[in-house]
Amino acid sequence: MKIATWNVNSLRARADRVEAWLDRSDVDVLAIQETKCKDNNFPWDLFENSGYEVAHFGLSQWNGVAIASRVGLDDVERTFPGQPTFGKDTDPVQEARAIGATCGGVRIWSLYVPNGRALGDPHMPYKLHWLDVLKEHAVEWLQADPHAQIALTGDWNIAPQDEDVWDIDLFQREGYTHVSPPERAAFHAFENSGFTDVVRPHTPGPGVYTYWDYKQLSFPKKMGMRIDFALASPALAARVTGASIDREERKGKGASDHAPVIVELA
DNA sequence: ATGCCCGAGCGACTCGGA
Questions:
Q1: How far in angstroms lies nucleotide B17's C1' from the CA of residue A214?
Q2: Could you check: is the Cβ of residue A215 within 7 Å of any atom of nucleic acid strand B?
Q3: Which of A119, A122, A98 is nearest to A110 (CA)?
Q4: What residue has its CA nearest to the C1' of B3?
């Protein structure tokens, strides 16, 4: 079985590439982030034509997450329990950033972790709280069933290690997000709770990334970030036989700024 | 060549991304 996660940065703008990628990648499950649409303009046919069931959670042109599967798609959950809201003053909104489904015996979560925007911005405590609540649930899921096969996949908007950005000195000097100690602590809290990054051992750095900005020739200049991850529960991690980052998909006209991340299971 | 930002909604500009 092969599962993948990919921030497509608009599913409609990327429809042809996503369909072609599904056809050649041979994945059984694809967790998608940033569909950037509501159900009424979601490209349902794309997945049906490729032989996948799909569940989508999209509330506006922002965010949006989905799971496509050809090994079953059961018990779909939109948002995790108690998922924090964000809103200016009086109108907090629960954003479309998490969808879960059971596919071929694996509980898959497609996660689009909030962007903190800047250290000191209100979005940063929102991001950290969002991750903390998710982590508390992840701990409960494991306590309820230590043998559960759970995959927390998606765009985490965190670079956990110095080698996960092209120039750590620049990031720290300028006080950029993604590398700050609180963000990294939020990520490591999942690892301390028993969830393992199952991709890094098969794709060691430095210089291995999943995201490259569209601007300033970032991709050809190898100015990227590793911010998309698949974290696996112990029972799932034990099944992992390989993993890869499909940086070929970042090439050419009409590419997403993120590359797909693939995990192979025995 | 992988090549100097892109997508969505609105309405011809603004916001969000990281």
A1: 10
A2: yes
A3: A98
A4: A217
Distance of CA A14 to CAs A92, A125, A216, Å? 30, 31, 22
The owner of tokens 């939020």 is A186
Does residue A177 reach within 7 angstroms of strand B, measured from its CB? yes
* CA-to-C1' span, A115 to B17 (A): 8
Strand B positions within 7 A of protein Cβ atoms:
2-9, 16-18
Whole-model pTM above 0.85?
A: yes
Please list the residues that pair with A244 across neighbouring strands.
A262
Strand B contact at CB of residue A121, distance < 7 A: no
Sequence-separated (6 or more) residues with CB below 8 Å from residue A123: A86, A114, A115, A116, A117
Distance A13 CA to B13 C1' (A): 21
Q: What is the pLDDT along chain A (266 residues), one digit of tens a residue?
A: 999 999 999 999 999 999 999 999 999 999 999 999 999 989 999 999 999 999 999 998 899 999 999 999 999 999 998 898 887 655 677 899 999 999 999 999 999 999 998 988 889 999 999 999 999 999 999 999 999 999 999 999 999 999 999 999 999 998 999 999 999 999 999 999 999 999 999 999 999 999 999 998 999 999 999 999 999 999 999 999 999 999 999 999 899 999 999 999 99
Query: A252: which nucleotide lies closest, measuring CA to C1'?
Result: B2
Burial A22-41 (b: 16+ CB within 10 A, else e): beebebbbbbbbbbbbeeee
Measured CA A48 to C1' B15 distance, in angstroms: 33
